[in-house]
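Quick look at the format.
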Amino acid sequence: MRYLIIFTLLALFSCTACAGGQLRSLPDPAQDIPLAKTSARQTAVFAGGCFWGVQLVFQHVQGVVSATSGYAGGNADTAHYKIVSTGTTGHAESVQVVYDPSKVSYGQLLKIYFAVAHNPTELNRQGPDSGTQYRSEIFTTDAEQQHIAQAYIAQLDAAHVYPERIVTRVAALPGFYPAEAYHQNFATLHPYYPYIYINDRPKLEHLKEQFPQWYK
């Protein structure tokens, strides 16, 4: 009975990746980088709440070579979970996505990020988690990524895909610092951990349902 109560309470305060708990159909980015003829690895960094769920989503995207949980937005000396959790370091829980640009484009990764990885209309929080460390932010590695990300946010806002304005920030990546080993692959290793089962497993189901062509 105690565990049933815990699951019920978590369900009341949890949310899916989609704003308002609804699956939303997003347009393709009007501006994107065409699929490359080379498979030379590229990197993208996304923050969208607890990194467990964001990592889980991108680990199941075709063309993604690796997804690593970590911290971005602050300094190296404060890139530690207990300090980041205070919300005073400037870091956001983030995921570094290494991908094959001949199989998936940066714009397609953005579409998945906005559609299923998190709710881009929640300011400094995500579901049951609150604080600047759980903010929605895209950390870009060059001017081209920055331009595409900003253009896509403007495109989604203009299309009124969400009932509220997107609050996702776009900033140049100052550095990415991998999280502690026990955070890596947490959702995969602990699929029935209450937080994962309620908050993050639905994201994976939404990925499979909305983007079967990219699901692996």
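Next, a different chain entirely:
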Amino acid sequence: MKKVNTYTSLKSTGLGLLYLTLLSSTSLQAQSLSPQIVHVAGGYAQAADFSLAYSVGEQSSISFYTTATASTLSAGFLQDFGFLDRDHLVLDLSLNNTSFEGSTTEFFIPVGAFTVKSSRTTTSTKTPLFTNLFGAGYDNRYFEIKNNILFWNSADPASGKETFQILAQVKDRKGNNVTKFFDIKRTRPEFSSLVVTNSFSPNGDGVNDNWRIPGLRFYGGARISVYDGVGSRMFYTENADLGWDGTYNGKQLPVGSYFWTIEILETGETRKGMLNLIRK
């Protein structure tokens, strides 16, 4: 059998200090809930008694109450004190998925859905609790939360990063909050499995005019070189998003076979291959 405690609450308002006293306490039994009267004392010697009516929730705790007399004191005003309304108070925050596959073309990628655990003492419908990223620190800048769904939301390749740490927070109507860290893992293709095309046609038709390997953008310390047949370097970049257009010092190079090397400082791996430059 649960008990309803007697409470005294103090609140500062524009009317001064209000003292709210519940006058009695008994068990939560059908037909006999107490206290039945709330006594409100304010400034200028103002005081009044108001009757309370209860709605008992599923867990036999008081979750809703009204005043029989609303001319000078409303139920909403009483709810500001917050000691009876125990419905939908935030308790925990969870994320149903914490990994996603990186993309070289899409920069708004769903990751997972947040679930907010809250107290529930009645079947009443309350305003949903929405989760937000808490501040601009950690790796929050790469993500966004919309309608409790976490999204990757950045064109920044974040080269060399596989795990991101975010800080998320959910707050209820009473100001209570749960703030938690979540580790989000971004998967990427293995360097050895990245597809490197062996030909391109820099002829200005807008198709295959540049030679590049988009998947390299997820790796830290990429060094890309292209050499001609005698070993002279025709192209070099450390920006994986920058492709080669078949020129050297602004001049178009002749068709033929060239050779490339790719070094990844992050993993210590190296790959080599042949590249055919054609103009059709």
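The longest strand covers residues 108-118.

See the schema section for token definitions.
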